[in-house]
Amino acid sequence: MALEHLTPEQAREVLVRAEDIQRRMDAGEVHSVGTDALLAAAEEAGLSREAIEQALAEVARQPLQKVSAGQLVFALSADKKYYPAEVLATGPREVLVRFMSGGEHSLLPEQVRPARFLPGEKISCPLPFWGWWACKVVKFDHDAMEVTVTDDWNTFTFEVSKVRLDPPKDNEETTRTKLIRNAYLWGVASGGIIAAIVTRLLMR
C-alpha cells in the first residue's frame, strides 16, 4: 500500500494507534505483522516497525500478510461487512472461505482481513438491547473461540461467530476522527512524536 492511498486523517489515526500498540508491545502484549512504506518515517520518530504495521492493518483495513488455509479471517459478505470465516484454500487471485455462520464463498485476496483480535483492536458487536456497536477487544480466548470487548462503559463476551468488522466510513468525520484531529493539534503544540511523523509524511 502506497502512502498516497492514505488520507491525512487516516495517517494521523494510524500514528495514534501505533503509539498505543507500542505501549502494549513494551508490555509484551503485541507481536509482529507485515510491512509497509510508513515504516521509515515511523522509525525515524522512534516507533518500532511492529507498532506501525499493526496500526496500518487496523486503520487502513489493508491486508499486510497473505492468508493461508486454516486461518481465521474476516471475509467480505453481501452486505459489505466483514464476518469471521475460515480459509479453506488460496490461489493467485482468490481465497475460498467458509463463514462461521455458515456458507462457503470465493473472494479476492483484498476482500479478506486476518482476524487477530489483538487488545485494543476495534470490531463491531451486537450489544444487548442496543444492536451493532463499535467496541475494543479486551482479550481473545482461542480455545473457546470467544472475544471479550468493551464499549468504554461495560465489558461483554461474544462467540467469535457473532462479531464482525465494519469497513471505514467515507466522507464522514466521526467522533473518533475529531478526537484524533484534536490530539494531533495538541501534538503540534507540544512538539510530540505524532506531529513529528505526520510532518515527515506530508513533506514527502
Number of strands: 9
Spell the H/E element sequence: HHHEEEEEEEEEHH
Strand order of the largest sheet: 4-3-2-1-5
Oligomer kind? single chain
- Low confidence ranges: 30-37, 171-178, 180-185
State the shape: globular
Residues in β-strands, percent: 25-35%
Gyration radius over CA: 17 Å
- Assign the structural class, choosing from mainly alpha, mainly beta, alpha/beta, alpha+beta, or little secondary structure: alpha+beta
State the helical fraction.
25-40%
Mean pLDDT: 75
Number of helices: 5
Q: Can you tell me the number of structural domains?
A: 3
Largest sheet: 5 strands, antiparallel
Instruction: Give the N-terminus to C-terminus distance in angstroms.
Output: 16 Å
What do these coordinates show?
With 204 residues, this protein is of the alpha+beta class. It folds into three domains: 3-61 and 178-203, no CATH class; 72-114, SH3 type barrels (Roll); 122-162. It is 31% helix and 26% strand. The chain has helices at 8-26, 39-44, 49-59, 175-190, 193-203, and strands at 72-76, 82-90, 95-99, 104-107, 112-114, 122-127, 131-141, 146-150, 155-159. It has a five-stranded antiparallel β-sheet, with no helix packed on it. The chain has a four-stranded antiparallel β-sheet with strand order 6-7-8-9, with no helix packed on it. Strand 6 (122-127) and strand 7 form a beta hairpin. Helix 1 crosses helix 3, helix 1 crosses helix 4 and helix 1 (8-26) packs across helix 5. It starts with 7 loop residues before the first helix and ends with a helix. Mean pLDDT is 75; it is low at 30-37, 171-178 and 180-185.
